[in-house]
Amino acid sequence: MLETLRKIVQEVNAAPDLESVLDVIVRRVQRAIRTDVCSIYLIDRQRERYVLMATQGLNRKSVGQVSLSMDEGVVGMVGQRAEPINLEDASVHSAFTYLKGTGEKKFHAFLGVPIIHHRTLLGVLVVQQKLIRKFDESEEAFMVTMSAQLAGVIAHAEATGSILQISDHTKTEADRKFEGVSGCIGVAIGPAVVMTPLADLDGVPDRKIEDIKAEVAKFKSALAQVRRDIKRVGRSLAKRLRSEERELFDVYIRMLDDNALAGEIIARIKEGSWAQGALRQVIGEHVQQFSMMEDPYLRERATDIRDLGRRMLTCMQESGPSLAEIEFPENTILVADELTPAMLGEVPTEKLIGLLSVHGSGNSHAAILARSMGIPTVMGVVDLPYTRIEGLNVILDGYSGRVFVNPSDDLSQCYQDIIREENEVNAGLEGLKELPAETTDGYRMPLWVNTGLITDVARSLDRGAEGIGLYRTEIPFMIRDFFPSEQDQMETYRKQLEAFAPRPVTMRTLDIGGDKPLPYFPIEEDNPFLGWRGIRVTLDHPEIFLVQIRAMLRAAEGLDNLRIMLPMVTSVHEVDESKKLIAQAVDELREEGHIINQPLIGVMVEVPAAVYQVRRFARRVDFISVGSNDLTQYLLAVDRNNPRVANLYVPYHPAVLKALQFIVHEAHKENVSVSICGEMAADPGGAILLMAMGYDVLSMNATNLPKVKFALRGISFDRARELLNQIIVMDDVDKIHMMLRNTLKELGLGQLTRPAIPD
To answer: What is the E.C. number (predicted)?
Structure first.
């Protein structure tokens, strides 16, 4: 059964649209269970009815014609109960409703299984048989497994089918909506530009071309190059391989000489597809065909074909224009399967207005950087077939996490009004730059910024930042192909320190691992967020840690505004060991003639183990900084990069609020200052609560700093404490959010809440 399931899923994944997906399912399931009928009923949301969408065994003319209300028939009962129903004779059941024209009267045995995707009922998968008998346990188990496997595929195929129509610019599919999670608030409207990772066949977008002759020549050139490369490799290894191993290279050459494969690709190009898209389509079809074959030898040829496709794609990408040569349109919305920090720097900032990622969540590292740049972003739009939206107009709603493809004029105008209102609010905040974040009763709250890119510096100063609470030093590491030298790091760090001097700059030591890998220092782990990351990596590699510390100290020479912060600390041993290495670097540089002052050293509290050791840490360091993003993730056991559980990542969870309050109280018992540099500090409501808890510094992305300052200047400290006392005893996250929103509106700060978004 497992092999049967694998083949069905493979065939479904290769189907071009929803109709084909459903047809594959009913045919395959009927054959696998050896039953008379297999049917799929999907819910029509507008009509609130189950519609027969595919069948093998009933009258096919009834497909799309017959339907049931949501509480009608045994199918409706399956949906209401959200569990399988197995009847030996459905026709005598009290809930049975005969669907005229289907021919189902002669069938008795019935097994229906709900199709559920992310708690949403999509429909019901049904098998029927003429015999009066119950389907056995193995058949029922297979159906449940099939339903669970295919629920996501059906949801995705439904979206894919819609996009296929959108790509043809049919008017009936305007305003097609896809759901993700917010990465950075704001609205953007513009053409989609899909960024493809190198040699990623599946990520190649569809794109139309006019110069067919040039595109065919590009493909033939790549084909010839790959053929030469394989022959060369085969000759160089000939003496080291046995004859049967050398035959592999002959197989590759025969595939490349096969006029059918090349001919199919050229035919697609002549139909108007660019070479890379034609390659993806043809290779995908051949891989799917070979993968379904029974013979193990032939099935393995799928891997060979995919490898050849990647090689040809690499050749075409290398011969094509570089990113620097690409003409990005005005108001570009950058789309990727998974956004990376490096991608953000590859589009001219004056043309980039929005970011859209199929994978990742609102708290991934790319989203955090997007917020620091103030670019509206939506993450985790897992059902979006991104390869098919190149050049289409897109509305990106960073407030609700929604994406609209091919929007209507009415919807576009509605969102244009929101953009205009946003601009008016932001213009009203510009006068706050020189004013302090001081409450109405005189309480002063220092506001710092989180940075990582050089461009963050000017933006931060322009918004009145009083210091840097978090400089992400891994960014210069992530945009290179090798570890930066001490001199390179020193020059980068100096720019941050000089720009903010004499204001403090808090530099976090290299924090890689988790969602921040280095391409030249890969860390392959089953659970990277619980693995080798942060201080664990750098203490295991003192040669990396010492070079970075030396670069920081040299960069701060004569400025003396450096603060060094240690990430992912879980024990006092890690703090003591880090301090020894920092002291070693200070001594070395002084011996070399540099005038180095001892910097302030702090630790990040971002794992539960650190929460209960705050006082111990406070006795060893100069300051404490809370990384609320990771702390929330670990407290709630929610991967903040996983869109499937993104709704469970809630910074205002009662457990998170209690932990944040506990940390600041414990640190203050040792007279050590406490800052917070997570995204909660960038939310006006969150900033009010953190101020009331007693945090000494709030650090946030520069984009949100004026809004936070405006909120703090519009409330008294006593009112903030009163609000905290009300919220800290609440146990419902939704009610906490509602109270924060209502309080902001009562204070006349309603413009800081989410605008009215059209449904």
So the answer is: 2.7.3.9
Cβ-proximal residues to 404 (8 Å cutoff; 6+ apart), any chain: 175, 176, 177, 178, 394, 395, 397, 411
Catalytic site residue 184? no
Secondary structure (3-state) at 284: helix
Q: Which of 717, 708, 715, 709 is nearest to 686 (CA)?
A: 708
pLDDT over 80 at 101, yes or no: yes
Known active-site residue 365: yes
160-167 average pLDDT score: 46
Backbone angles phi, psi at 469, to 5 degrees: -90, -20
- In this structure, are strands 332-336 and 187-194 parallel, antiparallel, or unpaired? parallel
Amino acid letter for position 735: K
- For residue 570 the two structure tokens come to 């879980």
More confidently predicted of 427 and 14: 427
Here the tokens at position 496 are 């941050």
Q: What is the pLDDT of residue 6?
A: 72
DSSP H helical ranges for 479-571: 486-500, 535-540, 542-555
DSSP string, 165-218: HHHTT-GGGTTEEEE-EEEE-SEEEEEEEE---TT-GGGPPP-B-S-HHHHHHH
For 6, the token pair is 């694998």
pLDDT band at residue 371 under the 50/70/90 scheme? confident
CA 419 distance to own-chain centroid? 24
Q: What is the pLDDT of residue 297?
A: 57
Give the per-residue pLDDT at 359. 82
Q: How many CB atoms lie within 10 A of CB 145?
A: 14
Name, of 45-54, 90-99, 691-700, the range with top average pLDDT.
691-700
Identify the active-site residue in 38, 184, 315, 677. Answer: 677
φ/ψ (deg, to 5) at 93: -75, 145
Q: For 209-214, what is the mean pLDDT?
A: 89
475-488 confidence digits (pLDDT tens): 778 767 788 899 99
Burial of 443 (0-12, 13-18, 19+ CB in 10 A): middle
Q: What are phi and psi of 466, to 5 degrees?
A: -100, 0
Nearest Cα to Cα of residue 393 among 451, 354, 348, 361: 354
Residue of 117, 156, 365, 668 marked catalytic = 365
HSE-CB at 26 with a 13 A cutoff on CA atoms is 27
Burial of 534 (0-12, 13-18, 19+ CB in 10 A): buried
Please tell me what DSSP assigns to residue 58: S
What's this model's pTM, rounded to 2 decimal places?
0.72
In the structure encoding, which two tokens stand for residue 371, read together? 């917020």
Burial 260-292 (b: 16+ CB within 10 A, else e): ebbebbbebbeeebbbbbbbbbbbbebbeebbe
Q: 555, 562 in Cβ contact below 8 A?
A: yes
CA distances from 485 to 454, 497, 498 (A): 18, 18, 20
Retrieve residue 89's tokens.
Answer: 């004779």
Question: Quick check: 57 and 31 in contact, CB under 8 A?
Answer: no
Calculate mean pLDDT across residues 616-637: 95
CB 115 within 8 A of CB 147: yes
